[in-house]
Request: fold
Amino acid sequence: MPQEPQITGMSGRHRAVFFWGLVLVFLLVLPVMIFYTTGYRLSFEDDVTTVVTTGGVYVSTQSLAVDVYLDEDQVERPRLFRSAYYIQNIDAGLRRVVVQGEGVQTWVKLVPVDPRIVTEVAAFNVPTTPRLRPITQLQTSAGAAVLEGAQASTTIFGVGTSTEAYVIATTSVARTSYTVNPEYEFVQRLFGTSTAAVVNESVFAEFRQDQDRFRFVSPQERNATTSTSTPVVIERNDMRLQSRAEELYAVWQGSQDNIPYYFCITNTNASTTAARYGQHVAAAVYATSTATSSPIFMIDDRTCRTEIKLDRLRQDVYLFDFFPGSSDLVLLHLQDGLYVTEIDDRSWQNTQLLLPGVDFQTIIENEVIYIKQNDFYFEIIPEIET
Amino acid sequence: MSDNSHLLPYARRADFKVARATELTGRDRRFYRFLEIVPGVAAWGTLIGIVWASIYASFFAAYFIIAFAIYWVLKTIFLSYHVRHNYKRLKHHMELDWGRLIERFKCDDFYHLVIFPYYQEPLEVLDDAMKGLSQAKYDPKKLIVVLAAEERAGEDSVNQAYEIERKYASQFGHFLVTVHPADVVGEIAGKGSNVHHALCEVRSKVIDPATIPYKQILTSIFDIDTVIYPDYFNCLMWHFMTAEQPFKSAFQPVPLFTNNLWEAPAISRVMAMSSTFWQMIMQERPDKAATFSSHSVSFQALYEIGYGQANVVSEDSRIYWNLMVANDGNFDVVSLSYPIAMDATTAPSTWGTIKNIYKQHRRWTYGVENWCYLIYHFTKNKNIPLKKRWSVALLQGEGYWSLVTNPIMLFILGWTPIFLGTREFHETVLSYELPIMVRNLLTVAMAGLVFSSILALSLTPPRPAGYSRFRYVVMALQWIMVPITMIVFSAIPGLDAQTRLMLGRYMGFWVTPKRLQN
Reply:
């Protein structure tokens, strides 16, 4: 048994050395951490150690079943159940972001990456094969749609697939064995109203009639003349979709502080803007800079527009509206089908075909897209099953 | 007029035992009131400042948060290192035969005065305390035991003391039951005033009649749930005999809140062990410590300051500051690194336990009143070395400030620049990297919890019959609650206490209910 305790308290010197050692670690680590979180990285390329400044890209996707690529390199998937990707350590320059997946259309965008700045993009991927939910007058006791008549299901669904189980009934089957589907009544009433897109009736029809009235007037006079046509205007949150002349525009109505990122570009000259964002963006920015109707404004070191023209693929527009659940995506019923397009026009506007065809009507009610085709009603399911 | 000749010169001042600004007049009163406001303003100012900076100076706030997260990781390493060292020392001290170690000293003439103040605790709590005392490896005839009852607790409570006296008095050298009168003007009803009364009583009724020199009495003031380990008095004696200045030292054991650890809910166990760990850290930093809860000190030292204060809430620490100020800064804390067992805070229901822990920690964190006392007397007593005044003031101030602000800054406000930051900030790499960086640093800091978990398990008493081995797993995993307990039972009660002091809504003494199960 020892005569004295063998373990004594920590001496003042011991504690002081430990304390000041940690202070030293703090002083060394802090600047490193601050530089790192600001975007500075060490580069060892070509056996030369240099400090480079990097940026980032933040990609939000609508589906968990897609892969994100940056310049051909697949980005590691985020944690479970997250659909946003933060891609770090990207050298400044133009970067190609691709979001693709099985069964969905590919979204591609060329984005400029600046040092210490994170560029935001929002991808969307609609199914390659349209997904339709039949809404029939009758349904089985289990809730399955009952398609009446002799038409084969492939004819009914066209190029699409059904998201629901259904049965095809022949006329010999007693209707009393099925129940009436109340949704059918509802949808039928919807298409009975004037809000439904009428096949082959352009949203610009009224404007064209106006144009015809001034047919013999010079173009300058025509523009100066007050049009009597009422532009179609649709609003969601602070975003407005409107037709003007024969074009569609997305116009930001909210405060400058809350303007979506894609309305703004980093301050540069016209040629650099064209190289970074596309010629159309440069033209739009520098044309609107002198316009009074859609002014531009500066926030920090960025120039922001308040209006973006939507790409209608040089087709006539039968209907346009916000894509359900989004104020950044627009649904366009064009001559050869139903499309989804993004307002973000940096590099280009991704436009994806939701449903091909020339002989259907569309209506959007309560964030649901309904179509009527050959006297059948469907809901379009714009996502794939994950 | 009472005789103050036995008091140290500084302890004779009328304001020596000031408890709050309202007891002073003129400039002193205004200055003390200002001091009462400072901690609350500092805490609220910090928290509001971070929110403000997040909105209007997001980059600065982000850099500050990164610096703070790194500081937190290093602080975790720093504290864990101290705990680890003290754990080794504690285990070593528990294995030593202190009775043999003190054989070389001439300490047969020394007495141990043990004071157990209590309020309405059940009889079995009192009985366990006495049982622990009777099993001490120390000559029981050298023990002067005082059971300090409260008149306001009622006749039944007082009678318990006499019942205990009948059962145990013969085993000890002296046994005294004191009854602290209710509603004494100038006192706060609580442990401090009860102990003060007991010390006066035992001097006049036991010590002076027995002509025991004050310098030969070591006074241990124990919470009633304190159950001593057998070698406590030998260990205390050894440290007293080997201390640089034994009559100018307070002796602090390590409180292990393990009496009812197996019965206590997880949240109570986490808080109990966290408190133990904090005391273990302070054992390795005695020059930065003050007394806490159960502790020991020479009777002579207490007599020289007129005992502790009867008008404060945090009397266990205040008694040390009284001694330090009265002795011109020349008073030490000596770490015993030897345990005493106490109760973890519990109640019959989980909600009751949560409420009790909250109230107990609010009372502990109301110890910020000591900071006001210190600064006030540091400006008065110029005999205390300036360096000591500054170091103690800053250290204690930082302690109370960080107790309240750090958990909130770390786990809540760390994210505010991301939510409240400017648009310009949101577009930067810094904005995206900040949460990743803070999360990673906190994960590293949380590694300290694994260490805590292992240490806590090794300090846990043997599993009683009727408890499943699975409870060990729960005891290991319970530490994931620490981020919550730090906010709910440290930061918020601390902020509550400091706000009350800031607003002049002075707190009274809240007695933590004790529940011991056999």
